[in-house]
Amino acid sequence: MAQSAERGGVARTFYILAIAILLGFIAYIGRGVLIPFVIAGFLCFLIYTLKDNVQRTPFIGKYIPNTLSFMLAFALIGGGVVLFVEIVKSNVETLLDTWPSYEVRLRALFDDALDWIRTSNIIPAAALGGVEQIQQSAIDLIRPVLSQAASSLTGLTSNFLTFITVFLYLVFMLIERGRIFRKINLLGADESQRAAINETISDIGALVRQYITVKTISNLVTASISFVIMLVIGIQFAGFWALLIFILNYIPIFGAASAITLPVMLALVQPDGGGVKMALTALVFLIGAEQVMSNGIEPRLVGRTLNLSPLVVLFSLSVWGSLWGFAGLLLSVPITVTVMLILTQFRATRPIAIMLSDDGKIADIKHPEPAA
User: Fold this and answer.
1) Which of 103, 151, 250, 272 is at a distance of 20 to 30 A from 350, taking alpha carbons?
2) Is residue 123 part of a domain?
3) DSSP H helices in the chain
4) Residue 139 CB: number of other CB atoms within 10 A?
5) What is the pLDDT of residues 36-48, one digit of tens each?
6) How many Å apart are CA 16 and CA 348, to the nearest integer?
7) Cα–Cα dist 73/65, whole Å
């Protein structure tokens, strides 16, 4: 009996692993179809979350009709996307046009560094030629890399077909949302299973909406503070960098570091007043603003609710980033939370959910399976 149970456990583990690999393969080969669909679902969550917040507005929220709330939320999200595209395109083009002046400043900084190395005798004189060659190669490489990144970014924001696809998915999701949930509910064999399905879907929706709401507000506050800091310091393209800080902060762990690095590097080579002093000042204040929000305020609002292990967050970033690129990085946390909540509802997969969680405490099964 014990051997039979052990074999059954090994077989179940093998099946679960095989299914996970198969789903990962499908997600990779079908990313061109699945990414617009998942992005539309993410935007649908945003619209419903914003609609609920509009209706909870003090004094006037309860008087706003449901349809008008949807229209306001849809207009705000659509306007935000259009504004994001226009800011990215205009700033990237301007940065490329003004890059020669930044390159002059960068070469001057490298020359100063080489002069200091020569006078301090840190590197043997015979090796200085190699250092100068590396410096020249690095500077010559920046322009093509910057141009390629700019073309990729502008291509992403100007891909008309992708925007149309996401828009159509989003419209039909909003129209058929009620019918989709009713059909999912009918998958239950009896009333208790249907109630369990409804409760699980409700839990997933509540957690993801709370995460999106708190993360959006936190990112907005961080980006606004960073914008003021960069404006006071005098960093060029402050609005563009603030927008990137807002977007990249949706990516856990790496997003904040990447968002801060870019304006600090620009401050180092900025022609008008740039240099080490400006870069260090920007680094200290931007990190301070980021740390206050990410380690002080945000965990109190969302960290305990998600109950995801930091190691799992890092692993999910690697997995979804490898499968879906930048879209996977943005959506990794909501997808992982959804998967964990679904896994908690089946006895065979509850151990996996426990390993994914932060403290090992997961939700009870809504509809206990009959004992074998």
Assistant:
1) 250
2) yes
3) 2-29, 31-55, 66-120, 128-157, 160-185, 191-233, 238-248, 254-269, 276-291, 298, 304-306, 310-343, 350-356
4) 13
5) 888 888 888 778 7
6) 9
7) 12
Q: What span, in angstroms and rounded, lies between the C-alpha atoms of 34 and 29?
A: 9
**Spatial CA neighbour of 45 closest among 218, 170, 199, 214:** 170
The answer to whether residue 40 sits within a structural domain is yes
Q: Which residues have a Cβ under 8 Å from the Cβ of 249 and sit 6 or more positions away?
A: 215, 218, 219, 222, 223, 255, 256, 259, 294
Non-local (6+) Cβ contacts of 245 within 8 A are: 219, 222, 223, 226, 256, 259, 260
Under DSSP, is residue 151 helix (H, G, I), strand (E, B) or coil? Answer: helix
Distance CA 260, CA 264 (A): 6
Residue 348 to residue 273: CA distance in whole angstroms: 62
Q: 139 is in which domain, residue-wise?
A: 33-186
**Cβ atoms of residues 229 and 279 within 8 Å:** no
Asked whether 217 and 250 are in contact (CB, 8 A), the reply is: no
90-131 pLDDT, tens digit each: 777 777 777 777 777 777 777 777 676 667 766 666 665 665
Distances (CA, A) of 138 to 73, 134, 275: 46, 6, 19
**Do the Cβ atoms of 328 and 322 come closer than 8 Å?**
yes
List, in order, residues 6 or more apart from 331 with CB less than 8 Å away: 38, 39, 42, 320, 324
190 three-class SS: coil
- Using the CB atoms, write b or e for 11-50: b if 16+ within 10 Å: eeeeeeeeeeeeeeeebeeebeebbbebbbbbbbbbbbbb
* Number of residues in the chain: 372
The CA-atom distances, in angstroms, between 292 and each of 35, 280, 295 are 33, 18, 6
User: Does 115 map to a domain?
Assistant: yes
Q: Residue 78 domain-assigned?
A: yes
pLDDT at 152 over 70: no
Total count of domains within the chain = 1
Beta-bridge partners for 357: 308
Please spell the DSSP secondary structure of 2-14, one letter per residue: HHHHHHHHHHHHH
Closest CA to 78 of 68, 90, 88, 70: 70
